[in-house]
Amino acid sequence: MPAATPKSRQLAILLLLSYAILAVLSCIWIWQTKQSMQARPPMRVVDVARQIEMLNREVAAYVQELSSTNNIEKARPLWIRVVARQHTIEGLLQQFVDLESNFKVLELQIAQLRQMIEHDPKHLDQGALHELVEIIQEDMEIFASDVHRTMQEIVAEQTRQLHRYSSAVAWLSMAVFSIGFILLAVFLLLSRKNKQLVRLATEDGLTHLLNRRSAFLQGKLLCSMAQRNQQPLALALLDVDHFKQINDVYGHPAGDAALKMLAQILRTYARRDSDVLARIGGEEFMLIMPDTSEEVAEQLCKVLLNALADTKISDDYAFHITASMGLTISEQGMSFEQLYRLADKALYQAKAAGRNQLKLL
């Protein structure tokens, strides 16, 4: 179980970073889109303004050519450019109804100019011609201002839409971020609860050693590995001497304190990560020592018994306790159940021999 905590923490940090990156990217995208839309007005409207300016110059060039040469055929290429420019502007104005109707008036005036010239090109009234040209140019300027105003209105509307969209995305980002934090909190809470449930299912509540079920599962696994690797597996059972008398004389809190002290001594001397410590009964404990020889296991058990006899229960309880131990070492082909029965038999012999001692089978 201790290894699950870093994994849970890493996953929680990953979730938090993911939501943070999502929020930051959303803000960057909104800002860039806003800058882009403010910097670039609608290109179609801009093209209309440019085309009107070019149409004005081409009409002026057409009239100037007629005035200087009085030759309609020589000025015809310029007129063709005027007509082509009109068609271009008509195509650009298809999405703008108001501008399209205003441009129709301008086209009628240009057509009137053409009709005046073609009616009698040799006796052309220059005064009337220039007056009509001035009217057309004034209307073009008015139309250009209409195009500019339309462009400003479109930009303003796009800006309003962008602000509304930005607000919506900002609220959405906040909601996503909040949901992320809520999910993160729920995930951490569930992970903690799951860890608590696993601990309740595998640990003894008083000593926080493994319980009987977990100890036997670990023992079967370690015994199988020892058989496969042809390594010794030592199993020791420990039982507190006269524990019922301790509860009767000093009370159950004293008995609990004695069991806690015994569990702490086991942790102190059985330090290897591979060692399995468990409380398998009221006052009965199990110690599984993988890859441990008979001599080493026997020496460790004697050290445990001596430390137990020399250690005071706690500041509140000054008495000492002793224990009996049974030890056995696995042989090739032996199951964990067989190993346990031998250790239990050795424990019984230690009790029968006067307690506070170790017996080996």
TrEMBL record:
UniProt enzyme class: transferase
Catalytic activity: 2 GTP = 3',3'-c-di-GMP + 2 diphosphate
Keywords annotated in UniProt: Coiled coil, Membrane, Nucleotidyltransferase, Transferase, Transmembrane, Transmembrane helix
Its EC number(s): 2.7.7.65
Residue ranges annotated for the GGDEF domain, each copy included: 231-361
SMART domains, alphabetized: GGDEF
GO MF terms, alphabetically ordered: diguanylate cyclase activity
Positions of transmembrane segments: 12-31, 168-190
Pfam short name (any one): GGDEF
PROSITE patterns found in the cross-reference section: GGDEF, PROKAR_LIPOPROTEIN
Annotated coiled-coil segments of the chain: 89-116
PANTHER family: DIGUANYLATE CYCLASE DGCM-RELATED (PTHR45138:SF9), REGULATORY COMPONENTS OF SENSORY TRANSDUCTION SYSTEM (PTHR45138)
Record protein name field: diguanylate cyclase
Organism: Alkalimonas mucilaginosa
